[in-house]
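Exercise 3.2. Students should predict the tertiary structure of the chain below and write it as structure tokens, then compare their answer with the key that follows.

Predict this chain's 3D structure.
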Amino acid sequence: MIVKGCSSIAQLKQISIFKDLVSTQLESLIPYSCVREYQSDEIVMQEGDHIPQQLHALITGRLEIKKIADSGKETVVRLIPAGELFAAPAIFGNGLSPATVICQVESQILTINREALLKAISHSPEISLRILEVFNQRLQQLHNTVHGLISERAIMRLVRLIEYYRDRYGTHTTKEGDCLNLKLPYYQIARSIGITYEECVRLFKKLPGTVIYRRGGTIIIRDWGKLEEVSKIRSKP
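Answer key:
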């Protein structure tokens, strides 16, 4: 980890909750901000760590948020792309990291002192609404994940995960179909929907002509309608 110093206005505007604000609304945050650079696979924080009262956001790169059960089993809770917030308890909670945060690639992380953030919110209340929107989406995702693990078949959970990342981060068009903008390797998918790596590989093999998986986590959907139909076929989990 390398400390780069205070952020710039341009870096602040890369964060989703700040992107539409004018520069004068952000200037007061600069002296209370800090930008740090992390290498691929470097741990930002461990589950249970005490973390200072700050806003945490990802400027560039990609983060993996995971929980580790007492049994040692790892579950990928979510992926954080550039521009998003993470570590909510550092702003509103007890200051303990709820999960382990790891950089999937080289990343830049922004932190802002909580008191400075609250002062900025008093002048620009829309910031608080955007923060609440982010965490409301996270709670909804968590609810859907728990519900899926309890009541849905593995193939349904896979389809829902693909649809979530399509809706959240979008796709781009290729000759073969719609390619997710976020790469999802087998191991991440398996840990996200509560199955083994081997079962994840088998599920994709059941989707020929519907989904294309490429090494490294590139996923291309050739037919969204057929993908939805596959998830509804009655079969054992």
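Discussion points: Residues 163 and 224 are 9 Å apart (CA to CA). The chain has two domains: 2-147, 152-232.
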